[in-house]
Amino acid sequence: MGEVWPVTTCRNDAGELTVGGVSLVSLxxxxxxxxxxxxxxxxxxxxRAWKHALTxxxxxxxxxxxxxxxxxxxxxxxxxxxxxxxxxxxxxxxxVGLNGGVASAMLSLHGNNKGRNxxxxxxxxxxxxxxxxxxxxxxxxxxxxxxxxxxITVLIRLNPGVDVHTHKKISTGMADSxxxxxxxxxxxxxxxxxxxxxxxxxxxxxxxxVGSQLFDTDAHTAAIADMIAFAADMRAxxxxxxxxxxxxxxxxxxxxxxxxxxxxxxxxxxxxxxxxSACTAHELPLPMxxxxxxxxxxxxxxxxxxTVGTRKELEGIRTYVSVDGGMADNIRPSLYDARxxxxxxxxxxxxxxxxxxxxxxxxxxxxxLLIEDISLPPAHEGDLLAVPATGAYCLAMGSNYNMxxxxxxxxxxxxxxRLIRRRESFADLIRLDLP
Length: 435
Ligand code: LLP
Hints:
This protein has 435 residues and is of the alpha/beta class. It has 2 domains: 10-32 and 301-429, Lyase, Ornithine Decarboxylase, Chain A, domain 1 (Beta Barrel); 40-298, Alpha-Beta Barrel (TIM Barrel), CATH 3.20.20.10. It is 29% helix and 24% strand. The protein has 12 helices and 21 strands. The strands form 3 sheets. Strands 4, 14, 15, 16, 17, 18, 19, 20 and 21 form a 9-stranded mixed β-sheet that branches. α8 (218-238) packs parallel to α9 (264-281). The longest helix is centred in the middle third of the chain and has 21 residues, at 218-238. The chain starts with 9 loop residues before the first strand and ends in a 5-residue tail after the last helix.
């Protein structure tokens, strides 16, 4: 199978698609559909690839997985086992990370509007880093850290104001962004001055995340140059050493055959070279580097299996093939015009007949189209449709729209399947209701 599928994907003698040595037909029978499946080998292989690429090039550096891409207890356990950190953006993510056994020193907390409760939780758990985004947060930190014995380590989230080549809704490093403090207008420097005055806080460096699903390194390298120039300036003016530096995540993956994402080694080489050359130019010692891949780790390891239901042929317009999931488990096509591919998973499809169809979701919304215009062998009621590269930002952004039940998640490895999150039940739909 191509790059969009988990590394273990193949077809068995019966023509059924298998992942991790397990037939998707047997998984669908056992756990129902829609079903999210993660291939443990792909997951761990990509964690190791990022970690090896980074730490062999920059010793002492760290890969911190962005939990927003997909998080559950088993995922947190795997992250901890593989020695990765966990980047959180909420108290909920902190909770799941801690509960899954991620060491608090390996946790970091982001967010443009951290609540007091979230900062309190981070301080109480004594997490590794808080990435400070704004002045209100600095005020809150001043109050909440005043009587700490050990200062909490913080980085400042910078807004480098760079061009980013990706969908507008997943660009974050441009001047008009809700994230971070701009370097250009002096706000970032003001944050340095304020944080330096707080005895309960140790300002250790800077962070930026420029955007997501990137296939080129331009925005990162531009941001790195500006951020390190700023770090040198802050060292000269305010004696703040650059100990830790993070250019965030954003590394693109294949969604369609023919997509050509950059490899971990390539990304790391470009980032490391940009960091080293900027540090040399500004006579700064090399900092500890942290990268935060989310999609690149979770995305390729995951796939979704749906059951085909109805067909509707609109003469001269299009044919809709509907499946039993859609925007409640994968909002990305509706939100970002994201494109996916799919194959029939329960039988060897007869490739001599191909039709152009649109895969529709089942939700009461015209825009609930999972894949517009895909060429597929005819799919009929009861067929299983497998959609690859759904491991990141699909279930994580899932909802209960139309009172749908969130799908189960299964981890497959070496011919065994383990349920790591059960399918929601009707009881779950009303468990918070107060009649
Ligand atoms: N670090 C920070 C501070 C971030 O804000 C993000 C993602 C990441 C790391 C991880 O980025 P990644 O390596 O996954 O690109 N829902 C969107 C993506 C939103 C990304 C938000 N921040 C999507 O489905 O495409």
